[in-house]
Amino acid sequence: MVNVQGINHITIRVSNIESSKTFYRNILGAKIVHKGNTDIYLDVGGVWLCLIEMVNAKPIDKNQIGVDHVAFTVSEEHFPKAVQLLREQKVEITRGPIQRGGGNTVSFIDPDRNVIEFFTGSLQERMKNWK
């Protein structure tokens, strides 16, 4: 068994690096760490996020096997502001905002229809509420 210490980074394939960079900076507050020709490395609340531009790539069908979504923790007090920002920026919300699994949650999509979630709860709270 490997002693995993945590998530190192998340890589997301995107169709346009510039529009994705703008989205992740404006919505998630991402800070640019490095920008290459077809990739960009971002820091999102201490999470290393890499966007790789895939020209002519086709979106993944939501019924295919693979990663369903990426969820970021936001504080309970900041959650209403996060939802307001999504609405002001006309980001498509796919679920919520609702209370679910021990916290408030809202799911939305990035420019390439990758699903992102803001969640206020913890794993312990979710397990208390999961049936």
UniProtKB/TrEMBL annotation:
Keywords: Metal-binding, Transferase. SUPFAM superfamilies: Glyoxalase/Bleomycin resistance protein/Dihydroxybiphenyl dioxygenase. GO terms for molecular function: metal ion binding; transferase activity. Residues 6-121 form the VOC domain. Pfam families: Glyoxalase. It comes from the Bacteria. The keyword Transferase applies. This is Glutathione transferase. It comes from Fictibacillus phosphorivorans.
